Amino acid sequence: MPPAVGCGDARPRDRDATGKRTMTALDPADEVADDTFPGYVETPLACAAEGACDVPISLARWPAGQHAMRVSEPPSPFVPRQVWRTQQEQSLGEVPLFGGDVTDGIVRVGDTVRRAQGLHSPLVHRVLRHLEFASFSGAPRFLGVDDEGREVLTFIEGDVATRPWPEWVADLDRAISVAVLLRALDDVLVGWGLPADGIVPELSPAGIPEAIGPGPTFIGHRDVTPENVVFREGRAVALIDFDMLKPSSRVDEVCNLLLWWAPLMPPEDREAVLRDEDAIARAAQLVDAYGLAPHDRARVAEVALNSADRTWFLMRARASRFAGGWQRMWDEGAGDRINRRRDWLADNRDALHTAVTSAST
Question: pTM of this prediction?
Fold first, then answer.
């Protein structure tokens, strides 16, 4: 799979008799500062071969210093372009997609998804480009920004849970496939490490307990809910919605996985399809499927409890600062549910610790 165009470390490729692609970088002097998206530039795009383009290509927005490429073939999903208002796509229209608890206004246009940008977006775009360069197929591709300022991603076909969650969310084999997919994602991101810049600082509300557990060594997904996993033929094939990316350890990632797929919360707060499941037993199987190292397994129970403690303060702070979906969740009782989860984890801490440390390695 060829790398996405428009990234600073993309390498030109030749098109020969086998059909390989030829790309040449545009002159950086062609970049124009974009006041609409601070820190971004607009770079002219054009087909190197006259008549090769069947749709007009004009501008693509990319972080300054990461130049777009001229492409000697018709546009492909890998060409970052601001062509998102062509007659062809206007005829397709926008189809609303389920946006989870926080993100509103997500739509599908043809084989792309449009999402509003936020402070997190530059890091998300960098991570998605890295995943593409690493040939990781379990994530959408970042294609650019449309003329409404929305990020444009590839649409991934498959089944995604909406609420109320369907019965198949409780299927253990599906949950295990999520753990395997998350491990594959983390293996790629561990190699990337922590970027020197671009990380949005976490809020530090008054009274929040200090985080415990292993220190962060890579950028983790940290939002592996059933709404953010794409399935095909009963197997997890892709993770979507990378908006909650943050510096993480493998223990952090696994605790987030267990929160939703075990799930580590009292039965009365679970979705109906998971209410009668043995969360402790499922947690052990998921930790095993992820392949968490023994020294990290020993930290799972305490980090899960500490995370619940911290989440109450963070949720309240986000509701106050960002309003929107965060405020809506808080008004609908998220704080009370977090407190109940914290109490449940405290009551089941020893059982959880025994289960996950006894799992095979």
Answer: 0.76
